[in-house]
Structure formats: structure tokens, C-alpha cells
Amino acid sequence: MDPVRNPFAPGAGQRPPELAGRDKELDAFEIVLERVARGRPERSLVLTGLRGVGKTVLLGELRSMAMRAGWGAGKIEARPDADLRRPLAAALHRAIRDLAVRHRDPERAGDDPVDPDRADEVLGVLKAFAMRSAPDGAKLRERWQPGIDVPVANGRADSGDIEIDLVELFTEVAGLAQEVGSGVAVLIDEMQDLRPDDISALCAACHELSQSRAPLVVVGAGLPHLPAVLSASKSYSERLFKYVRIGQLDRADADFALLAPAEREDASFDLDALDALYEASGGYPYFVQAYGKAAWDAAPRSPIGAPDVKLAAPEAESELAVGFFGSRYERATPAEREYLRAMAELSEGRDEPVGTAGIADHLGRKASSLSPARDSLLKKGLVFSAQRGQIAFTVPHFGRYLLTQP
């Protein structure tokens, strides 16, 4: 098979050639856009799931949908222990500019073009919000200067209290969108990595906007324990967001993710090959792409068969071992690797949670002595607390990979 025509594309956040199995989520967001545009109440959205299920890809698709609807949209990726103000300011700057450009176009603006002075006024508030990222007493050269070419509008969103400032900023941005009959979407990837103060502020801002029916929605994506993180910050977050669990593809969708791109290249897979590919990938979108790509390259001709998949599997697994599993395993200390290995042995390599007490018994250690390793793994995003007293891998098939390591 011609490797140049290989349609499959395993990659972090890279859109697959066929976004299979996500029609329900896309249709739900279409309804959110329509309801908010009509001034109807609607909750912000939180996507959760293991790594490799396509949360980042889906987030990007939702952003594209918002932009096609004439909304302003900005996307950020949260980072542990990093301040929210700078990336959020950059994302909203882009959203406001996109909103202004679209609604200054006479063909798109209709009766509600953006008033340039009003847009600059909101950008001035955004600039004031961003510049509060510098600590009090910081020297001028140490202060971050956002690339917003308007004067600072002091007195709004610049108190230094992130909860107060975020409510005021979102209110200003949503007000601008409402004036032109549009909306703004703020998309946050790796949401569980936001600092506790920022999580609390974000929940408060979403709560305020939902009460006023302002046309601004937040779409977050994160690991399975993200709802617990939000709930620990604000008890009402359980009712504030609409939670959508993103999992592996069922058999029909996994087959479609392989067959549709192949058919566009005048190729196909036989049924035995599809059986083998689903067993190897488990339906996880990233693995579907990885095994599909390797099977294409290994096959001499179409249709791709089960022997081709068997021949290709070591190549796919080698690539996953380095780029998907190995990079995460290398971040773990020896004590953390011991903990991970115990998890893998207890779960027998399956993607299932295990009890923390059982891990201690398995290692012949006191549970308290393992707490530092467990807490560090949680912070590194390698495991998550499935429920009280249980722990699970954030990466599918990670246990299976660990059992192959010496």
C-alpha cells in the first residue's frame, strides 16, 4: 500500500480523517449554540474521559462549530500551577477580534455591526484583567504586557481578586456579543489542571452568566475526576455544568473510522482485519488511528486482512510504547513506578480501578507510606481517583503496557 496515501493520523489533538462516534456530542452543542443565541438558559459543558479518547479533538471541533455560527471563540490549555489570567486573556482577545471582524462585515453583520469604540472598550477591560497577572510590587520590566493595542480601562476586572475580576470580565465580553446578536465560547483543555482559586472563579463566573442568560459558554475538557474537582470548589457546580463522558468507540463506529478514510483512497479492510483491529485498539480513537496506520503500511494490497494487522501490530505497539506510554512512564520516579506496577498486576492489565488498600497489601507496605507516591502520580496526571479508596490509570491500556516492562 502506498504510504503517501495512508489516511490515518495518530497524533496528540490531531483530528482524525473521520470523526466517528461523536454525533451525539456535536448535536448537543449545536442545540446549546441555538438556545443561547435565542436567549434561552443553557448550562456550560464539561467533557471528561481517559487520555486518547479524543477530548482535545472534540474540543477543537466544537470551537469550529461556534465560529461557523458567527461566534467568537478562544481556546486554552490549562497547565499545573500556572496562572489563568494570561492564557485566558489571549483566548478572549482572539474571540473578541474574531467577533468584531465578522460583525463589521456588512454581508454578515446585518442590522447589528460591532461598534469599534465599544469593542475597544471591552478590550481595554481585558487588558486591565491581563495586566493584573503580575504580582504586586513587580518591577515594570517584570510585568507582562499583553498584545492588546488599546488603552487600559481601569476600574473593571482589575481588582486582583480572580473571582471578582472573572465575573466582571465575562459580563463585559458577553455584553458585547449580545449587542451584535452573537455569542462567545471559551474552551479549556486539561481543565483539571487549573489552580483551585481559578476553578472557583470560573464556576462563579459561569453561575453569574447562567442567571443572566448571557451569551457566553465555557466548554471544559479533562480527566474523569474533573467533576469531583469542580464539585470540591463549588457545591453548585454539579448543577452548573452539563457533564458528558467521552469513551471508546463501539464496534460500528470504530469500523467506520477505518473504512470511511480507506474507501476515499480506494482501499478497504476485510472483516477479519476489522475484528483484529478492534481487539487490539479496544475502540480507543488514538489506538484505532495508530493500528490503522501501521496495518496500511504493512499491507501489500487492498483489502487489508488479518495477517496484515498481525504483521503490523508490533510496529504500532512499538510506536505507542515510545510516544504514548513511554513518555509518561519516564516521568515517574522509582517509587511511583513500583506503585504503577502494583496497579497493573492487581488489575491484570485491564482498564479497571483497583483499591488503594489492596495496593498496600500487594506491596507489603503500610498505606500511609505509599501516599507520597500516589499523590505525586495524581498531580502528574498518570492516575486518578475513580472513587474513594480506588485508583485508576488515566491512560488506557497502560496496565497492559506496564506488564511488558522488566
UniProtKB/TrEMBL annotation:
Stored Gene3D superfamilies: P-loop containing nucleotide triphosphate hydrolases, Winged helix-like DNA-binding domain superfamily/Winged helix DNA-binding domain
InterPro entries given in the database record: AAA_16, Cyt_c-like_dom, P-loop_NTPase, WH-like_DNA-bd_sf
Pfam families xrefs: AAA_16
GO molecular function annotation: electron transfer activity; heme binding; metal ion binding
Superkingdom to which the source organism belongs: Bacteria
Membrane-spanning intervals of the chain: none
Residue ranges constituting the Cytochrome c domain according to the UniProt record: 178-282
Disordered as annotated region, ranges: 1-21
Sorted UniProt keywords: Heme, Iron, Metal-binding
Family annotation (PANTHER family): ATPASE DOMAIN-CONTAINING PROTEIN, DNA-BINDING PROTEIN-RELATED
Protein name (Swiss-Prot/TrEMBL): AAA ATPase-like protein
